[in-house]
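Section 5: illustrative case.
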């Protein structure tokens, strides 16, 4: 099989035939630099021609969600710099993604000693780091491992990019968001608008399933999903589905990466100043008596600039809401106590 070095030389030879003579020298020069250099050098080469845009870091970038998420963010025209951090395999994933001929410059960061460099200067930090569920586990079973991981990563954010918008994917989201909030409070930089638990997968799923039942294009369906992101706390408001209607395993990685990108893109459009960017997210909230709750939020230059009320609920949804709040309260408290203990 052709090695990557051989492939690079072959592409260089072909390009040289296709390019005008003055570009041929440049082409060989560039390819020899690329082949002999480190991953970081490759990224720096491209940085000179990099597109304007936002700086985004993915923490846990080598995982089941992290890899497709990194690929999709590399394709996002709003991203100029993409930092890929993980405790394993970050260089390999970075090398692979960096060969995509899109505008964003990609840089890889491996292990705790490189966390601060990964985070410095970032506008948006997306966190899919941590262990996923295995069959038979609840999301809360992940708490013991993921709570510590999220704490460490958020301490890094507090130090290196305190103004960044944070999209938290690691489960259990109902507890990891309160953990992040407590870490940020301790560091004296907590801004509730900038911390968002990603519940987009619930919306994406609800849109897809409802569209299937109604025979519609899922892109035309909008199901608000409120509450939180676990069991009974996930409350789709089917009475508020748009367009209005009369009737009605392992852990996700690819659809979650899609959902994470949909949400991150909305955050970046908000940062850019676009009007009317609205998504569901698990945020600090006064919509119920609980300190955090997932509802529709309007995303702007400062993050979640407006948190929307629930709107009218039917009887079924009101009962669901009470169940959701009970479980959510315990999960939030568990996260808060983890840091305050
Ligand atoms: N919010 C949501 O809707 C969803 C959340 N999830 C959650 O996302 C998380 C990740 O899931 P997968 O990607 O499938 O898991 P995975 O195990 O495939 O990937 C996790 C990655 O995190 C890395 N990691 C572990 N400790 C780290 C640390 N201290 N710093 C940086 N990276 C670290 C691992 O090396 C691995 O590459 C899980 O907690 C899962 O439950 C999954 C699906 C949906
Ligand atoms: O179920 C899991 O463990 C992963 C997750 O949050 C989801 O797929 O909604």
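Designed sequence:
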């Amino acid at each position: 099989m052709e090695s990557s070095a051989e492939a690079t030389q072959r592409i260089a030879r072909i390009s040289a035939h296709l390019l005008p003579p003055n570009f041929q020298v440049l082409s060989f020069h560039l390819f020899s630099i690329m082949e002999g250099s480190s991953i970081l050098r490759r990224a720096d080469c491209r940085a000179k021609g990099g597109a304007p845009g936002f700086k985004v870091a993915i923490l846990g970038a080598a995982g089941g969600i992290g890899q497709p998420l990194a690929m999709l963010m590399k394709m996002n025209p709003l991203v100029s710099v993409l930092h890929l951090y993980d405790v394993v395999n970050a260089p390999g994933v970075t090398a692979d993604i960096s060969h995509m001929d899109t505008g964003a410059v990609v840089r890889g960061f491996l292990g705790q000693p490189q966390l601060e460099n990964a985070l410095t200067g970032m506008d948006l930090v997306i966190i899919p780091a941590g262990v996923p569920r295995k069959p038979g586990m609840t999301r809360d079973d992940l708490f013991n491992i993921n709570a510590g991981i999220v704490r460490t990563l958020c301490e890094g954010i507090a130090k290196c990019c305190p103004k960044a918008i944070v999209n938290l994917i690691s489960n259990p989201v109902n507890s990891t968001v309160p953990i992040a909030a407590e870490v940020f409070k301790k560091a004296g930089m907590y801004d509730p608008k900038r911390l968002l638990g990603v519940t987009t997968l619930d919306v994406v799923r609800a849109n897809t399933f409802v569209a299937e039942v109604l025979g519609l294009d899922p892109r035309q369906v909008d199901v608000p999903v409120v509450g939180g992101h676990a069991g009974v706390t996930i409350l789709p408001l089917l009475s508020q589905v748009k367009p209005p209607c009369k009737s009605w395993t392992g852990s996700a990685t690819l659809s979650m990466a899609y959902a994470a990108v949909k949400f991150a893109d909305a955050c970046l459009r908000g940062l850019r100043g676009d009007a009317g960017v609205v998504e569901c997210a698990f945020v600090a909230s006064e919509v119920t008596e609980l300190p955090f709750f997932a509802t529709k939020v309007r995303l702007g230059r400062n993050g979640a600039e407006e948190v929307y009320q629930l709107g009218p609920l039917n009887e079924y949804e009101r009962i669901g809401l009470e169940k959701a709040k009970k479980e959510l309260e315990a999960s939030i408290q568990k996260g808060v106590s983890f840091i305050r203990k």
